[in-house]
Amino acid sequence: TSDNSQLLSEKDLPQDSNVYQDFFGEISQHLPGLQPWMNDTEEFLFLDSALQKQAVDMKKMQNSKKKVERKKEKKQKLMEKSKDPKQSDARDPGLMRQCLGPGCVYPSRPGSKYCSDDCGMKLAADRIYEILPQRIQQWQKSPCVAEEHGKKMLERIQREQQDTQTRLKDIECNFHELEAIILRGKQQTVCKDEEVSGNGNSVDLQIFCVSCGQPISVHVALRHMERCFAKYECKSSFGAMHPTCIEGATRLFCDAYDPQSKRYCKRLQVLCPEHSKDPKVSDDEVCGCPLVHNVFEVTGNFCRLPKSVCNHHYCWEKLRRAEVDLERVRALQKLEELVEQEQKVRTAMTNRAGLLGLMLHQTIQHDPLTSDLRSKVDS
């Protein structure tokens, strides 16, 4: 070069960063020894400030990515070693353990404490034969408070079952007595004189229906309320997937099958307005309702008005039958609840003294002179 040659300014230098990256890559390949002692700023001294900063940031990002990849590779190698114990055992025979089976001298299988399933079963059987007799003796010697409570609960449940059974028998007797009373009432003769005297003593009053709220006369109040209630009751359904089968029970649930919902109706058969309709009443049919004095005293007489005219005893057979059937349903539900309670208590008692419970649980009395507070009778 001549003396008149001038240095290039920053404006004359190319502004493409890729040129400097390629140039620096070639230098680092030919002179790898320069990399350790060159810091981020010294590597790019020949660049301007903006390009130098961009190159330094790029190098830092590459270094951080390399560190993350190295950590991932190390974790992967450790996971593979822990998941594959066969390779570690095969590479290092010193890590192979002896089988824990009684009298066995063979090495255990990879990932197991035994060489075979038989050795594990033998050791488990020896443990049971060694520990179980002592636990049974401790169980028999020390009183179990939970066992005593369970026995008392069983006695109480059995007493309630007997009381409910007797109550159910009494209700069945009432059911048959009611049918006999209804049959006797139907055998009475119609009396027209009672109809005339009954209509003469009546007073014209009005009340509101409990279902629709319309004002109605007292004479036809029961008829209107019964029909209005049946109209609203048909809009709702009470069903189950299976029919009810109760031994010795007659005329309890409706059990009419609905093909649309694929369910059986679970209303009382007497009160079901959807599947049972009231029979038509003839003009010569007598009411037959048993008359009472002061609400509860039975007189032994029957209402002999025509059934189509008598407004005081409208649907009395259906209501009396529904009352008896409802008591029967309550008694049967009570029996079912008691059976479930008995089953739970018996299951808890059998599990408490079972093999698994005796092997896993143990009560240690550190001070034999101190009495167990749990066995103290509650005041």
From TrEMBL:
Gene Ontology cellular component annotations, sorted alphabetically: Set1C/COMPASS complex
Record GO terms (molecular function): DNA binding; zinc ion binding
GO process annotations (BP): positive regulation of DNA-templated transcription
Biased composition (Basic residues): 62-75
Domain CpG binding protein C-terminal positions: 124-359
Annotated coiled-coil segments of the chain: 321-352
Biased composition (Basic and acidic residues): 76-94
Localization per record: Nucleus
Record protein name field: CXXC-type zinc finger protein 1
Keywords, ordered alphabetically: Coiled coil, DNA-binding, Metal-binding, Nucleus, Transcription, Transcription regulation, Zinc, Zinc-finger
Annotated organism of origin: Sus scrofa
